[in-house]
Amino acid sequence: LCLLYAGTGLLQEVVYLVSQGADPDEIGLMNIDEQLPVLEYPQPGLDIIKELTSPRLIKSHLPYRFLPSDLHNGNSKVIYMARNPKDLVVSYYQFHRSLRTMSYRGTFQEFCRRFMNDKLGYGSWFEHVQEFWEHHMDANVLFLKYEDMHKDLATMVEQLVRFLGVSYDKAQLETMVEHCHQLIDQCCNAEALPVGRGRVGLWKDIFTVSMNEKFDLVYKQKMGKCDLTFDFYL
């Protein structure tokens, strides 16, 4: 089971919560990244991942075509989360600036230009998201949108429950939705995340009018034939 691309940090906690029936306070005390290793990272490595007890929760940002054949063959499940690209590029920029290993010091305008020209890590977002969207009707793929986590969390939790094959009665499901709300509040409030990377509509604080017009043009060119839509305002 892989969690992919946008909103991975928040989604991994929600998926862990739903799949394990865990408590949000319990997640706050653990290193969640140890529970969901990244497929393509050298640490902990594939040998350790292979030794994990099934069902395994594994993260990845890889394009669909580079994922293991088990996923292509329908033998493993994939949860893919896509985020509206304007918020995504702002969050990605702030992430790059926050990491010492990356220490990006360019302007947001330069970073956004690189994003639009497919010059960032993991390649083109436009190709990445469309490649997964082509498989969104596959039985082993659950395609989610980041904005829906804020707009209709209860429906998303119900989708995850069904997809993961876990069982909750009505009262347990309501409790689980409330626990997930707590997680999202903790991840997105001003104290826990000063840069506000989890907000929907983040892009409006940094995009200039000309940047927005240019981005819309590139988006239309690269996504014009795709019927995938996003909420840019909530």
Automatic annotation (TrEMBL):
Species in which this protein is naturally found: Pedionomus torquatus (Plains-wanderer)
Lineage of the species this protein comes from: Eukaryota, Metazoa, Chordata, Craniata, Vertebrata
Location of the Sulfotransferase domain: 7-226
Keyword Transferase: yes
EC number: 2.8.2.-
Keywords for the protein's UniProt record, in alphabetical order: Transferase
Pfam family for this entry, one: Sulfotransfer_1
Superkingdom of this protein's organism: Eukaryota
The name this protein goes by in its record: Sulfotransferase
PANTHER family: SULFOTRANSFERASE SULT
Membership in a protein family: Belongs to the sulfotransferase 1 family.
GO molecular function: sulfotransferase activity
Keyword Manganese: no
Enzyme class: transferase
